[in-house]
Amino acid sequence: MTANETTQAPAANSRRNEKVGNVVSTKMQKTIVVEVEMRKAHPKYKRIVKSSKKFYAHDEQNSARVGDVVRIRETRPTSKLKRWALEEIVRRSSLGQIEDNQPVNQPAAV
Question: How would CATH label the architecture of 14-97?
């Protein structure tokens, strides 16, 4: 067994928590806000109840856009609120493509 094989094994069997959710905000630099929806049966009434929670995640390349479905992974604290990092973009939103095609600074028609 070589040194490379031993260093790659823990990364593959990582016990870090992962979540999949929608990007809600990208207004900060290198930070995205991901909303994760959890569905759980009510303990007494057995009806499915939706609850959601927002997580701040580190996005090094600023590649995620609003509406994208992303996978985030738990990391060491990066800032006061950030404890997650962007792992991958699962699905791009069609909304982000429309925004990219529009010119940014158009003069108002008078």
Answer: Beta Barrel (2.40)
Residue 86 in 3-state DSSP? strand
pLDDT tens-place string over residues 51-72: 999 999 999 999 999 999 999 9
Please return the burial class of 83, using the count of CB atoms within 10 Å of its CB with bins 0-12, 13-18 and 19+: middle
Rama region for 90: left / alpha / beta (φ>0; ψ in -120 to 50; rest): alpha
Domain ranges of the chain: 14-97
pTM tops 0.85, yes or no:
no
Find out whether 22 and 69 touch, Cβ atoms under 8 Å.
yes
